[in-house]
Amino acid sequence: MNQDKEKILFMFPGVGSQYAGMGKTLFDRFAVFRQTLEEAGDILHMDFEKLCFKETDKKEQAKLENAQLTIMVFSVALFKVYMQEIGVNPDFCAGHSLGEYSALCCARALRFPDALLLVQQRGNIISEVSSKLDGTMMWVINLDHNVVENVCRQVSVQNRNVYISAYDSPTQTSISGHKDVVMTAAKRLEKEGAIVYPLQMSGPFHCPLMQEAADRMKGVLTRFSYAPPIYTVVANRDARPYTRKESIVENLSSQLISPIRWMDSIQYLVSQGVGVAVEIGPKDVLKFLMKKNAAGIQPYTMDNESDVHKLKDRFLVPETDYLNVIGRCLGAAVGTKNRNQDPARYEVEVVKPYKEVAAMYEEFKLQGKTPSATHVENSLNMLRRVLTAKQVPPSEQDRAFRKVLQGRVSMPRQAG
Fold first, then answer.
1. Domain-ending residue, one of 286, 315, 344
2. Is 64 inside any structural domain?
């Protein structure tokens, strides 16, 4: 049940969001999280519990190949926790760099086993190619991206180049390229007022120096099959939705030589009416970037218990309002104009279900008890049936449900 809900974005982070001990509470608390890590471990013959939870394995977790896999597995497992605990579907998904694989997997364009194998290959290829290159990557903070572009052009010389490799916000970018030219650019940018520092696991990522990696990854991607995503997924390469499953190969391979257009992606999503963004992955890097990109979008992260409670309060009808929701269902059922001229159908599809819910409502009021979520769902189903039988137009039905639910969009998931 999901009536005219606010448009929701799921954001999936990339490398740099991992931290030692990530997911331990989730692993202990949620069987679906635990099962996802175990499934990934069985497929890849890796111990994800050890990689995620053990402080002594910080160095192993920090290796690029392992970091990519642990973040993707964590993100998919956390997505399953969200769907189990909250269950309100997103309208859009977007992933930052590696996170695009997580987004496509959760949107069912990629099977989870295939996503694991692709990310494993991606990590191996990127590591092998970048190790042969005299390149690096740096964050540039607190400087307009147009100034950064200009400096990159000024310091690049023949066959020695530096490029913007990510547009994260109007004043946060990353630059990649040949190491000496990147260092020259960094000094110039600091004089312009920027804060510049190298990225962990640094290589010349998301720039033309990674052409060999893009070519090799394209060969790997062509060996897998894909499905149309069930949610709209916005690509890093052009900040626009995937229009067909065949574009997955091109987008994910070109991603390695193209800048991450995160800022443009968020602006596109603003234009589409997104009002809520939920970060599905470790930490809150994308939540922080959202605040820099779009003040009108409220960001949350599922890797924060306080935010999870806020999401539930925003999306889900609280138990204390269950009886009132049933009462509002009854009010909407009788207060809506009838356009049905068939008395027999009206008796069966309007009068009878209404009376059943009305009797239940009076019984709960009389006993002073709280109805269950199932009782509320049954009442909402009654209202939908009644409004349909009364031949109420869809737009008017939606308005009735918004009034009944008072801005919430779903009922809590039932245990089991």
1. 315
2. yes
How far is C-alpha 137 from the chain's CA centre? 25
Report residue 28 as tokens: 């202990």
Name the pTM for this structure: 0.89
Please identify every residue annotated as catalytic: 97, 206
On whether both 311 and 364 belong to a single domain, the answer is no
227 plus 308 within the same structural domain: yes
- Give me the domain span that covers residue 165: 134-198
Question: What is residue 218's three-state secondary structure?
Answer: helix
Complete edge-to-edge strand list for the sheet that includes strand 195-198: 162-169, 172-178, 135-141, 195-198
Sequential pLDDT tens for the chain (416 residues) = 344 457 999 999 999 888 888 989 999 999 999 999 999 999 999 999 888 887 655 667 778 888 899 999 999 999 999 999 999 999 999 999 999 999 999 999 999 999 999 999 999 999 999 999 999 999 999 999 999 999 999 999 988 999 999 999 999 999 999 999 999 999 999 999 999 988 766 789 999 999 999 999 999 999 999 999 999 999 999 999 998 888 999 999 999 999 999 999 999 999 999 999 999 999 999 999 999 999 999 999 999 999 999 999 899 999 999 999 999 999 999 999 999 889 999 999 999 999 999 999 999 999 999 999 899 999 999 999 999 999 999 989 989 998 999 878 776 665 43
Nearest to 195 by CA among 142, 255, 236: 142
Length reported for the chain: 416
